[in-house]
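So, is this right?
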Amino acid sequence: MSTYEDRLKALRAELARRRLDGFVVPLTDEHMSEYVGAYAQRLAWLTGFEGSAGSAVVLPEDAAIFVDGRYTLQVREQVDSRHWQYQSVPDTSIAKWLEANAAAGARIGYDPWLHTRGWVEAARAALAGKGAELVAVETNPIDAVWPDHPAPSDARLIVHPDALAGRSAAEKRQDIAEWLGKAGADATVLSALDSIAWAFNVRGADVDRTPVALAYAIVHADGTADLFVDAAKIGDDVRQHLGNAVRIANRAAFPAALEALAGKTVMVDPERAVAAIFEALAAGGAQIRAERDPTVLPKAIKNPAEIAGHKAAQARDGAALVRFLHWLSIEAPKGGLTELSAAARLRELRDETRLLRDLSFDTISAAGPHAAIPHYRVSEASDLPLRLDEIYLVDSGGQYQDGTTDVTRTIIVGTPSDEMKDRFTRVLKGHIAIATARFPAGTRGSQLDSLARQYLWAAGLDYAHGTGHGVGAFLSVHEGPQRISPAGSSQSGGDEPLRAGMILSNEPGYYKAGEYGIRIENLVLVVDRPVDGQEKPVLGFETLTFAPIDRALIAPGLLNEMERAWLDDYHADVRARIGPLLPEETRQWLDAVTAPIGD
């Protein structure tokens, strides 16, 4: 299996052995996670694609890989076009491609633990139109041909303190029980890893960059719960924390427990629960009701303790980032820095806080043309030097027990071109438009998205990713249901009403393929923003991230008076909040680079 071509051949041979004419390979796990453990990195093993969203289909002669606009360039760098067709989502879909390419009468395999029920229904209907069949596999064929397939993590769970969570696990379970009672239901299934971590006030280390544990849960209307997690991962401290109302069973016992809910009314989230969960419940005779996971909204609406923790984490993380930017300003012009060495230095500075638990995602350390790849991931093979008169983009974040951070800064090493300054300033204007927006309660993220794009649109430009995603509290850096994204985009969630307490990113960008990329990202908190004469509650954003924005890339003439004032006020906040946390030399540098914008 030394090459990706060998791996593709091995999979095709295994499919033939199983009398399958194709197989669908999503990038997820049994919990519909965005970031997955090493054992679930089947798409990367098969194709070489290292992005965080994508899927593939393998037929006897053809194969295709499906990604959205964030990965258009990356997939072409990492996946061999001799063996794979590149497909763009949402312009097409797996179901449409199979309908066009699968042979009449073909048997197309899928793993029911890796797809939603809705996906299965859509794919089955598309195949039925040409007499093809969608076939559930009992075991994943990739696992059968993957030598040294990693085992799931055996890391132990840890207790997330109530002081940081803001509410006890018992209180959260009681809220779920009351929700079930009002709906006349007996139980609900929690399968999303961050939902389980939040509901039980536990964290884990089973997935890189996301502090969650591999587990399932069933919460009952009497407030008790069954937690399915390998017993070796539970220490006495976690058992004591969970208490007698939580019964612990091995993760492998979960399917049988679903079938044992015979005659019960069970709430299941069709977006977060895989098809196999619905099938097991149906096989056991449960009455299934499709409802959104009851933890999703309360998890997204941060309570005062979570907000306070997040602000503390942001200040700590901001100081590490400012120290990095100061170091970069000295070392980058000398030459000798690369994407990898810069990312390593930033990690060192975060580690020096002594409170960093992990990065919140793999740092996007992107020089020159790599900055034009929105979700670029540096490797030893791709590592570029930071060169004079080129842009360097760094998108990074940390996982701290009191909060999750995510921040992007775009830096010019040397002197920018006029075009770079124009594009950067248009992105900045969009960022400010989101930061200063006022909107009535009930407004959705999709309604705000165009505020960030308008200045790029005016120049015939745009970017192929959402403007903002939700962020968890020592949980997933990409958290739903809230987003700021175009309605109907492949990055769903933009139609969720924004509510006070939600945390989102504000990250418009611009990318010129093969040359440079720009993104300015801060995290923002939805807050009440009353205005005189309002006829309904008005909301806005409080900026949470504090780090300098590179003034060398700004064309001041493109900023209006309000935008200049916002920038100067923001930089004054950076000095006030971060300055006292810095060594003297770095503080003096910060004072200089955050001085009021000139003409």
Summary: The first helix runs from residue 4 to 17. The two ends are 59 Å apart (CA to CA). The chain has 19 helices and 28 strands.
